[in-house]
Amino acid sequence: MRRLLQAGLVLAVITALITGPQPFGLHGGFWLAAAIMIMTVMLSYRADTGHNRTLIFLGDISYSLYLIHYPLMVLLMNSLADKAWTDNLMIFVLSVSASVALASVMFFYIEKPAIKAGKRVARWLSAPLTLHRSS
């Protein structure tokens, strides 16, 4: 079963690279992304992925990646689609690479400091109030 999932994952990733960016919605690109996600989750089930630095990094930047990937892909498609030297594969690879890079920057310079500040505020709000009695 594991070999079948690995082969399916490789096939789905190759298909994604060949077809390039897909329009937003419940067709083509969505189902391909869903298949890749499902196979990845199934392959990681009961696997020793706790120390895989790549997966930890992608998990850390996942929210920033979620926020940035679609606007960046649309921007690149609109600005590069009519250029003679670009094709769907090039736009797809560029959008994935740039999305991971920008998500990393967002995670380290926006998300982590915001989480740290939120923890400070939570500690401050949860600190017990001490009332001083005047003598």
Automatic annotation (TrEMBL):
> Domain Acyltransferase: where?
7-105
GO molecular function list: acyltransferase activity, transferring groups other than amino-acyl groups
Instruction: Classify the source by domain of life.
Output: Eukaryota
InterPro entries, per the entry: Acyl_transf_3_dom, Acyltransferase_3
Listed A to Z, the keywords are: Acyltransferase, Membrane, Transferase, Transmembrane, Transmembrane helix
Pfam families per the record?
Answer: Acyl_transf_3
Q: Where are the transmembrane segments?
A: 29-45, 57-77, 89-110
Q: What is this protein called?
A: Acyltransferase 3
